[in-house]
Write a structure and sequence with these properties.
By secondary structure, the chain is α+β, with helices and mostly antiparallel strands. It has a single domain, classed as Aminopeptidase (3-Layer(aba) Sandwich), CATH 3.40.630. Helices cover 26% and strands 28% of the residues. It contains 6 helices and 9 strands, in the order βββαααβββαβαββα. A 9-stranded mixed β-sheet has the order 1-2-3-4-5-6-7-9-8, with helices on both faces. It is globular. The N and C termini lie far apart (34 Å). It binds coenzyme A (COA). The site of coenzyme A (COA) has 21 residues, from helix 2, strand 6, helix 4 and helix 5. The site of coenzyme A has 21 residues, from helix 2, strand 6, helix 4 and helix 5.
Length: 238
Amino acid sequence: MTASQPGPQSSPAVGVWAGPLFPDRHRWPVKLSYGAVILAPFQPRDWEEWSLVRQRNQAWLAPWEATDPVPRERRSPRQLFSRQRRETKAGSLAPWVIRYGETSRTPLIGQCTISNITFGAARSGSIGYWIDQAYAGRGLMPAAVALATDYAMQVMGLHRIEICIRPENAASLRVVEKLGFRYEGSRPRYLHIAGDWRDHHCFALDASETAGGLLARLPPKPSRGLGAAADSAARQSQ
Ligand SMILES: CC(C)(COP(=O)(O)OP(=O)(O)OC[C@H]1O[C@@H](n2cnc3c(N)ncnc32)[C@H](O)[C@@H]1OP(=O)(O)O)[C@@H](O)C(=O)NCCC(=O)NCCS
C-alpha cells in the first residue's frame, strides 16, 4: 500500500480512492474504500437511510448504545447531528457511514467514527462502530476499522488510536483481536451505555506498532456475495 499517492477525484467536494491509496494530507470530507467496504463522510442526505437501518437494528444495537446519563439533557438524533457537524468542523471528529458494494448500489450498513481527536502532545483519537446485523460476521468491521486507523495514522498524523469495549461484547472484542490492538486495561464505569455506567476494556495501538498498516493484517479483500439476510435488508432500506 502506498500512502502518498492521491487517487482520482470523483467530485470537487469529496476525494474518492478506488483502493487504500490515501491523499498526502488530511482534508475533510474524505471518502475511503477497501474492496467493497466504503467509508463515506456522514452527510445530511444520509439521514433517512440511516434512520431506517437504525430502526431495523434497534434490538441488535441497544445493549451497546451510548445513553445520556442526564435525562433532561437528552438530545434528539437531529440535535446530535448538529453537534456532530460542529465537532467535525472543529476537527475533533471524523464521522463516516459504512457503505458496501462495488456497483452503484451501495447500501448504508453501519458507522465508523473517530472521536475525541486531539493533537498537541497526544495526537490521539477513539474509534467507535456498529454494523447492520444482516451484514455481521463477514469481516467488514475489521476492514472499516483498519481503513480508518491507517488513514488516521498515515494521513492525519495521529500517534494513537484507542477502542473501548464492554467486556460482554464478544463480537467487538474479536474485531480488536483480529487487528492486533493491545489491551491496556479496564476502566470501571467508563461510559453510560444502555442506561447505566458500564465497565470497559480499553485497547490501543500507536504508530510504532502499526508499521505496514492494519489493512495488511486483514485476510483477502472483503468481497461481495452477500447472503439472503443482507439482500433482504438492503431491499428494505431502499
Ligand atoms: C461488533 C461488530 C461491529 C462486529 O462487526 P462484524 O463486521 O460482524 O465483525 P466480524 O465479521 O469480524 O465478526 C466479529 C465476531 O462476531 C461474531 N459473529 C459472527 N457472525 C455473527 C452474526 N451473524 N451475528 C452476531 N455475531 C456474529 C463472531 O464471533 C465473529 O468473530 P469470528 O470472525 O472470529 O467468528 C458488530 O457485531 C456490531 O455492530 N455489534 C453491535 C454494535 C456494537 O457492538 N458496536 C461496538 C461497540 S464497542
